[in-house]
Amino acid sequence: MIFFERIKKLRAKGVIGMNFRNIELIGRCNERSKYPLVDNKLITKKIAKEASIAVTELYGKIEWQSQLENLHEILAPYQSFVIKPVHGSGGKGIVVVTHREDDLFIRANGTSMTLTGIHTHITNILSGLYSLGGRYDIAIIEKMVEFDPVFQDYSYEGVPDVRLIVYKGYPMMAMMRCPTHESNGKANLHQGAVGVGIDIATGNATNAVQHNLPVTVHPNTKHDFSKLKIPQWEEILKIGAKCYDMTGLGYLGVDIVFDRNVGPLLLELNARPGLAIQIANNKGEYFRVKRIDQEAQGRSAEERVAFSMQVLSRI
Amino acid sequence: MSSKFQVMIIAFMFAVAGFFIVWYKVEFLNIPLTPHAKKDYFTISAEVSFVGENAPAEITMALPAQQEDLKIISQESESGGFGFTISKTEEGERAVWSKRSIEGEHKIYYKITVSPEKVYGYIPEAKADFVQHVGNGAFDTDAFFALWGEVERAAALNLIETVRAHSSGPLTFAAQLIDQLNHEAPSDSVKMLLNMKREDKVSLITKILMHENIMIRKVRGIYLKDRQKVRALKEMLEVYTEDGWKLFDYEKGHIYKPNNMFIWQRGNDALFTAKGVSNPKLRFSVIQTQVPVISTIQQNIYGSNSEFLNFSLFTLPASQQNAFKQILLIPMGVLIVVILRILIGIRTMGTFMPVLFSLAFIQTTLLNGLVMFFVIVFSGLFIRFYLSRLRLLLVARISAVIIVVIAIMSLMSIISYKLGLTQALSVTFFPMIILSWTIERMSILWEEEGGREVFIQGSGSLLVAVLAYFAMMNEYAAYLFFSFPELLLVILAVIIVIGRYTGYRLSEIFRFAPLGHS
Q: Which of A13, A192, A239, B319 has the fewest C-beta atoms under 10 angstroms from its C-beta?
């Protein structure tokens, strides 16, 4: 039976499925009560600051429909900014404005928006269009990440980010998500962004996939992924490890971006990280999970990062 | 692992409990496993005919008691103007028909419907009953032979002597006696006794047994054969032994009650009496009918003292029963959702939305339902796209979509009715609010993820809805869940087990296929 053959191969690679993730990782390691720490971006920002992890600067928040009357004044000081729903997930409801042309706001994907367009968008956010369960939400306006030119070759119309999976505080697997024209500048793999598997020891690219299929060059910029190397790798792993300490979530997705001026920034945390990272790395999470389970708890973030770099990368 | 073990134990217990109750109900309460199971009913009619004599008339007839292997389902009297009462006597119930004055030919019927099934909780008559009947065996034993000649009395004593020598107790005594009286080459004393004008075999056996102080009672029964008509019931004899009452045939000796023999009367009273009328006649007839078992369950409840059935859904009023027939289908649909999402990995819009649609499809029939679904959703989507340009708040927008959906539904009904297509009238069974939410979700999904994702999730939802529809439309499933709601425990067990499944979903085998290659 071809099915059992395939299942065997996936098992041998340590690939885990959604059911395993939900029961054994999320169900076991992530306490419900801690979800708001990551689901609410305002809280995430606050606790990250307390843990001295760099986050994108908050320009302001809009909680009430009435605040929108002053939208023009609120946005006036900023040439570029990002509007996000506080409870959004998967990049939903995010509008990135790179600059202005007269009365128009020019978005990262090249399209333009009027002030009324932004007004509508924030109205949608407030009424819960992008939040889980459709509850009322808050819109935040934050500084746009000026992304570091080191990744210019591997990105198109958007900001590439690094996704770390942190298991019990150990950065376990990493990938870089490079937007493409097809993904409309978004770093979502299922929308066509390229997922680049990253060696946890060095920060070097190991493998790249688009739509689950291996690729060697960026489809738009045509640059070779094998030359991709993420700078300040240990620093990034430390951010990931610290996020565990600050949230207490045992299975955590940490999204990090590179700002030209600030360096690595914590963009978002995710208590239900997806499994596409396995495809990008051409490697399953299972054996690393089991290896970390054998390790003693209570180590410092630095010790855990050292362990990840030395031991996990070889599993 | 231990928590997984606990889950398995709990699931196992649920499943065992569920199956046990099902088994109990099938085995002991005779609830069939399939909706089409039929069983035999026998209706025995006793017909009393007589000619009235313009005088107060009273007719009585012994009535049967509940018995072990033939269950009395119903009994009724067709009294035709007579007063009808049931009187209790020491030997059981008797029907009493009475009238102040009656003239001409008349017929009275008494009908009993029985079904060949075990009656649980049946208690055989205790000995105490008997003692009351025949007065503790304190007879003047010689009185039985008082009217006989000296020779016959000697022959009887001789026969008793022989029988006693060959027997060890009441059972064997009666058996030997009947054997002797039915012998092909009877002894001289038997011949002499049988030749008596006053006595026949039945009265001889009765008298000799009573003379021996053996407790006996008469038994009258009827064979359950379709279209049978008999003038008299089959007479037999029961003898009291240490092991209780034993049945004897006057010809064959000790017998076990044939399965198809319905005992009408036990005891020594007359089967029927008639006062104040002339030419009374009693005859019996049997009619066999087949009835679907499902229709008998309701009747069973009244005839049984089973706590289980008293607690079943069959005891609810009919309208509530129908509601539960629907509600109990939902677990099937839910199970389908669980299987398709956890084991197969189909993506749907809203977890249980497909079940609600399949419930609607049950009302509208599948094809009509699908057509109406597409018409409403597409026209709703079209209007929703226009509404999105009006920049309404979410709640207001969905409310607007609800109203639009209702308008579409009304329009569909009116147009199709004018065209003579009454099928479309069942559109009202669609859950409007869920439809509106679906339209809203679809349009957002379209804006955010593109039409492809709408197609994947939309067709996934419809696939689940259609599969759930077939699962719920299944006649056997519907019957099983209504008759055996404890099967919910089994479904619960299955869902609990699936809930701890950590293996791959079928879809993931394809999703992760690139990982399996290199």
A: B319
